[in-house]
Amino acid sequence: MWQADHTVLDILVLDDNGAPVRPWLTVVLDDHSRAIAGYFLTLDAPSALNTALALRQAIWRKPNPEWIVSGIPEQLYVDNGSDFISDHIEQACISLKIRLIHSLPGRPRGRGKIERVFRTINDMFLPDLPGHTIAGKPLSAPALTLDELRTRFEAFVCGIYHRRKHGSTGEPPVTRWQKGGFLPAMPDSLEQLDMLLVHVPKPRKVLRDGIRLMGRRYVEPMLAAFVGEQVEAVYDPRDLTEIHVYHQGRFVCRALSPEHAGSPSLRAIQRARRSAKERDKQALASTEVFDGDQEDTAPRPTTYRGLRLYAADD
User: Fold this and answer.
1) CA-CA distance, 252 to 265, in Å (whole number)?
2) Which of 38, 39, 257, 283 lies 20 to 30 Å (CA to CA) from residue 54?
């Protein structure tokens, strides 16, 4: 069984504009060994997408060969936060055959294990870093970017936390994981895992100039045969460079966005989504027809190549 939860860290890091911000950490913990299976660091508040990205990192094989914890767990134990009770996470767990268990409100049995991990991180990892805060006040000037904090956090997990004897189990987490005899079940590919956990389908109508999604235009010559047709545009929120287009459950093509050639950060993507929503509201208020984005229909399950996908909340 794995547990997952979020915490805001007692440290200030520098965002893309150089402003100091406290980051959020999502941790996926193996209940038996107390090993950290995966994590996700972000400057944004917890969301279903952030939880999905933490699970993605936990399930798949890590680039660091010392971080051996991976596989699809049998159970995932979480609280009743809005992201953990979202359709996105529920349906992802169904697709991966993970039993999703929510703690009872006011009776968080067993939640102390992951809270202890957060205390260990705050006590052993953060104090030596620039920008560490106590009671909201920084003890030194923030200097790390989010990427630099990720690098240092992974080194702490693999080099210190996993190898230090745990006070409750009496064993280092990585040793207890190896002795547990868990044979991880793995998805067939990282692409399949992304399709189940991360990729988001949105219904769209093909226009003469392509497909409009979140204020951007996606083009591909093959779309000319589908002008006026309703399709599913499947995108990765971490990279809006391209979308995959499906018509009646069959793959049509990959469409690219000429206006979005780079690979933006997740934070930049979320800012763009909020800006697109604001433009939609302004256009609606002025009764002008905005041809940049179309209204979504209600989220519904869609089947592609044997995989079940579910629309995520914006």
Assistant:
1) 27
2) 257
The dihedral over CA atoms of 59, 64, 67, 68, expressed in degrees to the nearest 10, equals: 70
Q: Work out the burial of residue 177: count CB atoms within 10 Å of its CB; fewer than 13 is exposed, 13-18 middle, 19 or more buried.
A: buried
Among candidate residues 92, 82, 87, the one with its CA nearest the CA of residue 45: 82
52, 275 in Cβ contact below 8 A?
Answer: no
Q: Are 113 and 34 in contact (CB under 8 A)?
A: yes
The answer to whether the CB of 79 falls within 8 A of the CB of 111 is yes
Complete domains list, the chain, with CATH: 2-187 (3.30.420.10), 199-309 (no CATH)
pLDDT in tens, 4-21: 999 999 999 999 899 999
Question: Of 12, 112, 8, 28, whose CA–CA distance to 76 is shortest?
Answer: 28
Residue that is written with structure tokens 């936060």 in the block = 81
Pair type for strands 75-78 and 2-8: parallel
User: Which residues sit opposite 5 in a β-bridge?
Assistant: 27
Q: How far apart are CA 256 and CA 77, in angstroms?
A: 38
- Sign of the alpha-carbon dihedral angle for 24, 177, 63, 152: positive
pLDDT tens-place string over residues 194-241 = 888 888 788 999 999 999 998 899 999 999 999 999 999 988 877 788
Task: Record the pTM.
Answer: 0.71
Beta bridge partners of 309: 302
Report d(CA 8, CA 131) in Å as an integer. Answer: 14
Residue 245 near residue 255, CB atoms below 8 Å: yes
Instruction: Judge whether 191 and 233 are in contact, CB under 8 Å.
Output: no
- Burial code of 229-243, b = ≥16 C-beta within 10 A, e = fewer? eebbbbbbbeebbbb
Helices (H) and strands (E) in the chain, counts: 7, 17
